[in-house]
Each structure stands twice: as structure tokens, then as C-alpha cells.
Amino acid sequence: MSKRKLGIMTGSGTTKQPRHWSLGLLGSMEDPESIVKKTERIVVIRDKYPKAKIHYLVLPYEDINSIYKLTEKHTSLLEEFGKLYEELKEKHKESNLRAGFHAVPSMQRLHMHVISTDMISPCLKTKVHWNSFTTRFFIPYQDVLKGIKEDGGIKKISNELHKSLMSTELICNQCNFKPKNMPQLKEHLLTHVK
């Protein structure tokens, strides 16, 4: 299919290469339909493929690729992430929200997930989706902030640990139920809805 048919045009009418999917957050940061809140340094957007009833992404305007590029100079930026997380918790008092970062993010540009623990969503489809939010692969916001303040950075996880976390057996994040597969888990999650 031609680029022209895909509708990829520059302002001058000439075609340009489409962005790689991993850069998709950059477009969402500018999309008024996605934006929930903006500050001078940060934007909060709705996740396009939410893995729970409530799922936001908190991103800096500064071009920081991942948590592994954070240093002590980013402490105040991360603290502002925390303030926005607190605002979202206040807005969604009826939900239990968590904030954290994926140890190996699939999307470029640093982003913090703020997600409800219900994990009810048609976009939650695979074991990898589940394990990326319910194992140590999901690094809590407070742990990242502490690592930056105390150690000056975050240590990368090994490929072996990454594989191990993604292949962890399914277990409900709200009780000890161990489903045989994702459909069974998704059905079970509905029993926790109040």
C-alpha cells in the first residue's frame, strides 16, 4: 500500500515515513482527545489500550527514553509525577489505583502507568499483558523515586529475569485463585467487582 493511501503526508503535501509503533506515545501526547491534564513539564493521557477500567500514562515533555535514563537531576520531575498520581487517586476514590513503570517498556518515552487493580478490560488479552502489571516487572513509583534519590539511578533487569517474569503462572491479583488460562482469569476477575 502506498504512503499516499495510508494518508501519511507532511504539511507541504509530500509523503514521509510513518513513525515506528514504539513511538506512538509521542502522537498521543499531542492528541487533545487523549490528554487528561498538562503541566509545564508533564502530560497525563488515557492509555489507548487500557488494561483495566482506569489506565492513564504520565509522561514528561523532556525527551527521556526510559527509567534507566533517569538520574538525580530528575528527582523533582518524578516528584511531580507523584503529585499527579495523588490527584488521580483523589479523582477516582472509588478505585484502587497503582502507579509504576515497566522494567522493559515496549514504548519509547518514559511513561508511568496509573492503573486500577480491577484489571477488567477487553484490551487485557495475554499472559504477558497480565504479568507486566502483576509481577515485579511492574516497578512501583515509590521504588523508582527511592532508587533515583538513594542510588542515583535504576538498575536494569536481566534478560533471564524478564523472561521468567513474563512466564510466571497466572494468579489473581486480588486473591489466591490460579486460573488455567486468560479467559478463566478474566471471568474470575468479574467476581471481585463490587
TrEMBL record:
Q: Which GO terms describe its molecular function?
A: DNA 5'-adenosine monophosphate hydrolase activity; double-stranded RNA binding; metal ion binding; mismatched DNA binding; single-strand break-containing DNA binding; single-stranded DNA binding
Q: Can you list the GO cellular component terms from the UniProt entry?
A: nucleus
Protein localization: Nucleus
UniProt-listed InterPro entries = HIT-like, HIT-like_sf, Znf-C2HE
Instruction: Please give a single GO biological process term from the UniProt record.
Output: single strand break repair
Please tell me where this protein is predominantly located: nucleus
Identify the Pfam families for this entry: DcpS_C, zf-C2HE
Q: Which parts of the sequence belong to the HIT domain?
A: 22-124
Keyword annotations = DNA damage, DNA repair, DNA-binding, Metal-binding, Nucleus, Zinc
SUPFAM superfamilies under this entry?
Answer: HIT-like
Q: Does the keyword Magnesium apply?
A: no
Indicate what this protein is called per its UniProt record.
Answer: Aprataxin
Lineage summary? Eukaryota, Metazoa, Ecdysozoa, Arthropoda, Hexapoda
Gene (name only): LOC113521343
